[in-house]
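Reading a protein record of the kind used here takes only a little practice. Think of the row as the fold of the chain written in a discrete alphabet. A record is reproduced here so that you can trace the correspondence yourselves:
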Amino acid sequence: MSAIPLPQIGAVPVERGDAARNRVLLLDAAALLVAERGVDAVTMDAVACRAGVGKGTVFRRFGNRSGLMQALLDHTERELQQAFMFGPPPLGPGAPPIERLIAFGRARIAMVEVQGEVLRAAENAPEYRFGGPARALGIAHVIGLLRGAGVEGDLDLLASALLAPLEASLVLHQVRDLGMTTERLAAGWEDLARRVTRC
């Protein structure tokens, strides 16, 4: 009797061509709804209608609205992820760790300025806020930069503390309600990063 092969850790499931097309179609429809009518307009019904598919397709793909918002967050973050993993310095490889850390924070703040409502909605989904793939990748990236800068201590906690000021809900509150500029927030992030790394 042959053993049943186990899935590999970190393996990405292969999607059929039509499933991959549907996923992109649905996420693009959700992003357009956010841009046109705000994040509260992103319901499973509205996304299905905008994408021209049945509501069941949206539920089968994402499970619920929280799953849809997390997938939309991952979709919108892909460009930033590509930039910090493979792009030019200082955000990408090739610059000193502290310069990359500062560039990462500045890029996150700029991203909130453009995609803030999507990011806020995903952050507010309890089952995804601290466990989603986008956050996990961000934490791992910041830990790697802290390690590269020679920072000692509990790097997991330090990375979480450094990411906290970059959360969309806080950045949107500071900009919209408190009247802070994104330039001020970026300068504050740089000051924090330099204090943590003592650079």
Remarks:
- The domain at 65-197 is CATH 1.10.357 (Tetracycline Repressor; domain 2).
- The chain is about 70% helix and 0% strand.
